Amino acid sequence: MSFEPHAEATRAKPAQAQSHWLRRLWRAAPTKPGQTYGVPGEGRTLPISVGAVVLALVAWQAVTALGLVAPLFLPSPVQVVQKFVAILQSGYTGAPLWLHVLVSAARVFAAFALACLIGIPLGLAMGMSPVMRGLFDPFLEFYRPIPPLAYLPLMIIWFGIGETSKVLLIFLAVLAPVTLGARAGVRSVAIEQIHAAYSLGATRAQVLREVVMRAALPEILTALRIGVGFGWTTLVAAEMVASTQGLGYMVLSASQFLQTSTVLVGIILIGLIAWVFDLSMRALERRIVPWKGRM
Amino acid sequence: MLEIRRVSVFYPGAEGSEPVEALRNLDLEIGPGEFVVALGASGCGKSTLLNLIAGFLAPSFGQLRLDGAPITGPGRDRAVVFQKHALMPWLNVIDNLAFGLKLQGVAREDRYAVARRFLSLLGLEQFETSPVYMLSGGMQQRVGIGRALTADPRILLMDEPLGALDALTRERAQELILKIWRAQDKSVFLITHSVEEALFMGTKLIVMSPRPGRITHRFDLPFSRRFLDGQSARAVKAAPDFIEMRETILRIIFADEEQAA
Asked: pTM for the whole thing?
């Protein structure tokens, strides 16, 4: 057949492209059966991520082992691990490591729970009612971009230097994204779904409970993930004043004594805890909103 | 019996311009067991009419009554099947089917018993506990139809329910709807863009025309009877009088389009 050579040519070219993986960065190869051609960002990332982390650790170790950076500025990974083991064995400033972790986690998760308890109903109400939106929107939008450090003094003046001001500071940081997420979730319900429920005899309360709240769930879960992230970023600020325990306190006080390896231990611990929590939230997401993005 | 008397609908126009007359002086009756199909170019007010009957929209003038009672809002005596099936993805197939009964507070076992009857009627027995987002478009639409039927409405309102289906699935769904319609003896109001679908399915056809939206032609149709009396769908659609009628209606619609343009 006359088009045979042409077909052969087009078939041969991508095979060449596929042979060099670097070229695939610029031009996509045809997909294997069962995949979709041209999906942006398609592909496995785990090996690349593992490789990147290992590479960073190796570079870190190399830079420090070669004496390119003074240990005061950047201790080697080995030193950080040694410091971690030391803190694990004998604690930090009189408290065992698990207590520092527990205190910080309790602060963040107490604030997170409070933010869920208030933020989710508030966001749903703001999504459902123009009155609620009109009432709360200006305040929410006003305080949202303000850095927590700016209103930390107010928290302390109003609520003292105890646990209340610490938890409230984190709570405020988590509240805004959770509320806005729940509010956006209300918008994600399709009007046909609402009409269908009404035409099946639903009351307004039933539409809210059986349709809007369910449809908002994926957005709410995403908002919770973002919110708890904000909580961890605010932890150090919250533990700046009058703390003797907590990872944020550990990082801050160690920095005052230039104990860089302890600072790094604290940072890595905060990062790891937040990361593990995010992973479990994603697993939860797959379990309770498996339809997300599929309908 | 659904009665629509001298109904007009005006939409507010854009800033400073005249209101748009979406429907003018429309009269229509849909009797028990009747299958009324609305055909017409886009903008002829078909969807407005359906929204009026469903109770989502109040008429500017005129009255709508169902069995003598004025329609004042949506209700389960008028279940809607949407073009986008509008299923609840957080519920599986049988919970979607039984959704209307759940809203009415029917106990789980009782509503499942009802839903299972429709499950087999719709040929979805094997998919009772499947998530709806895993189903094909045709199956999703069958669940949507089943959900409306499970609520046991007086009248079934269908807004281009088969518009998104491929030709083959669409024909199968037409046959299924007709069979269910006869078995259930519901009134149906169906909107479609397909002349063939309209002729095949309806007992009564209204052809609507835009600017202002109004009914310009009414026909009584014999074709669905032939199918339900045992003729094959293909035979019904290939009959000379079916083809002749199809061409007549198409001429009407094209003439409307040209007049409007």
From this structure: 0.81
